Automatic annotation (TrEMBL):
Entry similarity comment: Belongs to the LysR transcriptional regulatory family.
UniProt key word DNA-binding: yes
PROSITE patterns: HTH_LYSR
A GO cellular component entry from the record: protein-DNA complex
Domain HTH lysR-type span(s) in chain numbering: 2-59
Lineage, uppermost ranks: Bacteria, Bacillati, Actinomycetota, Actinomycetes, Pseudonocardiales
Keyword DNA-binding recorded: yes
Protein name according to UniProt: DNA-binding transcriptional regulator, LysR family
GO molecular function terms attached to this record: DNA binding; DNA-binding transcription factor activity
InterPro entries referenced in this protein's UniProt entry, alphabetically: LysR_HTH_N, LysR_subst-bd, WH-like_DNA-bd_sf, WH_DNA-bd_sf
Keywords: DNA-binding, Transcription, Transcription regulation
Gene3D superfamilies listed in its UniProt record: Periplasmic binding protein-like II, Winged helix-like DNA-binding domain superfamily/Winged helix DNA-binding domain
Length: 279
């Protein structure tokens, strides 16, 4: 019989790629993770892992077992939600991670409303790609993130869609909607590599026929706005993060969702938080 607790270890390894990183996510020692994986291989009766230097990849049997592990994890989340609903749990704490403008737009108002229902939100500022990792690792209950960051392991609930605007320095000639192609010779202020919003900017510029000349980088939109105001360049930013000038034609969009681990959406506390976030 396969121990479902060891399936959680296998999922963490698949998510993080190394025993050390999986151990950190699970708050275990690397030796404990290795022992659990060895025991799981014995239970499964198939080799599950292939080592490549410090990294570990999954065998076909390992990939297959991870797929089943996702299903088992969702059912366990659903079982816990059913038990909590049976106990009529209507008060407690729910951990939420969201990027700054989403905290302003939806999380803070939801927090204020939920306090009157004895539901406490624990809020963590995190970019969309980081909140997804936190959700996978079980460190939070709800992630506010971009729609394209989610996977089949999550149930997602649409919150809002916002366009990207062009942020221009004082005195720039543009006053109305801006054709991105007209900014091909400008210096640009963008987010750091790895931030999905940087991909949006680079793709939008590529569709306009040029690659942005990147001079400054920051993941803090207040810093981006300050740099643009100082004449350091131009930027493209989600409207709720920085108010700018509309893009001419079809503007890039950010579709924001609330994501939870599949199966946990029926938990009474999480359901109450999701309903309030959507409201």
């Amino acid at each position: 019989m396969i121990d479902p607790r060891r399936l959680r270890v296998l999922r963490a390894l698949a998510d993080h790629g190394t025993v050390t990183a999986a151990a950190a996510a699970l708050h275990l020692t690397p030796s404990a993770v290795s022992q659990q994986l060895a025991a799981l291989e014995s239970e499964a009766g198939h080799p599950l892992l292939m080592r490549k230097g410090r990294r570990v990849s999954l065998t076909p049997a390992g990939d297959l077992l991870v797929t089943h592990a996702h299903v088992v994890a969702a059912e366990l989340e659903r079982a816990q939600a059913t038990l909590d609903a049976l106990a009529s749990g209507t008060s407690g704490r729910v951990a939420v991670a969201a990027f700054a403008s989403a905290i302003t737009q939806v999380v803070a108002p939801a927090l204020a409303a939920l306090k009157h229902r004895s539901i406490e939100l624990s809020v963590r500022d995190a970019e969309g790609h980081e909140s997804v990792r936190l959700l996978l690792d079980g460190e939070i209950d709800v992630a506010i993130t971009e729609e394209h960051r989610t996977t089949e392991r999550f149930t997602r609930f649409p919150l809002y869609t916002e366009p990207f605007d062009v942020v221009l320095p004082p005195g720039h000639a543009a006053r109305g909607p801006v054709d991105l192609a007209s900014l091909a010779d400008e210096d640009w202020v963008v987010t750091l590599p790895g931030n999905p919003l940087r991909d949006v900017v680079e793709m939008a510029c590529a569709q306009a026929g040029f690659a942005p000349r990147i001079r400054h980088v920051s993941d803090d939109f207040r810093a981006i706005q300050a740099l643009v105001a100082a004449g350091a360049g131009v930027a493209l930013a989600p409207r709720n993060a920085v108010r700018g000038v509309p893009v001419a034609g079809v503007a890039p969009l950010r579709r924001v969702v609330a994501a939870v681990r599949r199966g946990s959406e029926d938990h009474p506390l999480i359901r109450a938080v999701l309903d309030e976030l959507r409201r």
